[in-house]
């Protein structure tokens, strides 16, 4: 837990600084696109995450990797930001900074993040229905779904938006039924 708070104390100021700079430069859309690209690249490459996290690899090597991987694909502000993270020995927190930036972007754009756990892959119509219900719940302009498949649910979905959880899974219904039967005895 302490590690998480230390990490957040490092992550939040950098994400907020990048957000402020993006807004000042009127390049929020371009930098948001860059951040999504960086997040996807990190998600697809465990090696890149390990390289950035390793204290044994020098700053010059990390800067070279930033240049070769991102230089031609990202806005100059984003590239400068990545190089600054290397200089300040904060590049190991890049994945967390990306996540925090996306959170700040959702607040600005009034987008609700719904973490959906489903027993099966959802159809487009089911995703649209969930989006509509989350919009009604949160009064957000739009909804971003983060869908995870978990066959242990048997059927149905669990939707988490912020601190609110809606358990419409068969496993949850069985658990509630069991609880009501055992407390009623």
Structural summary, described in words:
The structure is a single chain. The protein has 185 residues and is an alpha+beta fold. It has 2 domains: 2-106, N-terminal domain of the delta subunit of the F1F0-ATP synthase (Peroxidase, domain 1), CATH 1.10.520; 110-183. Helix content is 63%, strand content 15%. It has 8 helices and 4 strands; from the N terminus they run ααααααβαβββα. The chain has helices at 2-24, 28-44, 46-53, 59-70, 76-87, 94-109, 124-138, 170-183; strands spanning 111-118, 142-149, 156-161, 164-169. It has a 4-stranded mixed β-sheet. The longest helix is centred in the first third of the chain and has 23 residues, at 2-24. The two termini are 40 Å apart. The mean pLDDT is 90.
How many helices? The count is 8
How many domains make up the coordinates? 2
* CATH fold-level label of the largest domain: Peroxidase, domain 1
Which CATH first-tier class of the largest domain would you pick? Mainly Alpha
Summarize the structure.
This protein is of the alpha+beta class. It folds into 2 domains: 2-106, Orthogonal Bundle (Peroxidase, domain 1); 110-183.
């Amino acid at each position: 837990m302490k590690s998480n708070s230390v990490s957040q104390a490092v992550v939040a100021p950098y994400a907020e600084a990048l957000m402020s700079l993006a807004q000042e430069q009127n390049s929020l859309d371009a930098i948001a696109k860059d951040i999504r690209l960086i997040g996807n690249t990190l998600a697809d490459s465990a090696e890149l995450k390990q390289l950035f996290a390793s204290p044994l690899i020098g700053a010059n090597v990390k800067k070279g990797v930033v240049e070769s991987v991102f230089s031609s694909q990202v806005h100059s502000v984003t590239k400068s930001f990545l190089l600054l993270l290397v200089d300040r020995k904060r590049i190991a927190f890049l994945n967390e900074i990306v996540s925090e930036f996306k959170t700040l972007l959702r607040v600005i754009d009034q987008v609700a993040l719904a973490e959906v756990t489903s027993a099966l892959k959802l159809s487009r119509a089911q995703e649209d229905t969930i989006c509509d219900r989350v919009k009604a719940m949160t009064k957000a302009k739009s909804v971003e779904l983060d869908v995870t498949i978990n066959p242990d649910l048997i059927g149905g979905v669990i939707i988490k938006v912020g601190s609110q959880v809606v358990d419409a899974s068969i496993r949850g219904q069985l658990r509630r039924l069991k609880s009501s039967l055992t407390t009623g005895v």
